[in-house]
Amino acid sequence: GHVQLPPPQNVTLLSKDFDMILTWTPGEGSPPDVTYTVRYESQERMGKWIKVPHCKNIHSTSCNLTCVLPNFFVKVRARVKAVSGRFQSPWVESQFKEYHLDVELAPPVLNVNVKENSVHVNASFPLATCVESSFSWMYDLNLWEAGSEDKKQYERIFRKNAVTIDTTALRGNYCLSARSSFQSIDFKHSKFSQPVCVLFNHKG
């Protein structure tokens, strides 16, 4: 009989930076020309494994499933097999995950626009277009004087909205940082973004 290919290992469905991604590592002793094929199954239709067209015979060891998910509120799992010539490995399955409950947020990128007596801040999110309109992402913004621990907080600003802060009374170097937030069963938050520091009302 034919020798089977070694199956992929460490098959994990993970939610990272707003995306749902299946990752794996090559089975021990896999040939160099090995490719992988991925399918997924949702709890709505158990036993029906659905093809993922962009993850058929791929060389990479990950597959982004975000925009093929049939429903962001239903648990799905995925499976992957190795293929080389006429040989293939058994399928290896991941655990179940649900986008809405398990999504892991990435910090937003701040866009800071300093005017004469104010600063305009808005946040952009590294979102796949398919999820853009599905949820109301928000962000929390912190403003503080460089070197100080005392932070002014602006909370739960809708993603599309900018914040305008009056800087008339502020002098010197101030920093801004934000995190993504999202209401599922409770509030979820990303880490805070790297601070962006700007000089206000600098004379001279």
TrEMBL record:
MF GO annotations: cytokine receptor activity
Domain Fibronectin type-III intervals: 7-102
Gene3D superfamilies, per database record: Immunoglobulins (2.60.40.10)
Domain of life according to the entry: Eukaryota
Gene encoding the protein: Ifnlr1
Provenance organism: Oceanodroma tethys
SUPFAM superfamilies membership: Fibronectin type III
Cellular component terms per the entry's GO annotation: plasma membrane
PROSITE patterns per the UniProt record, alphabetical: FN3
Name of protein: INLR1 protein
TM region positions: none
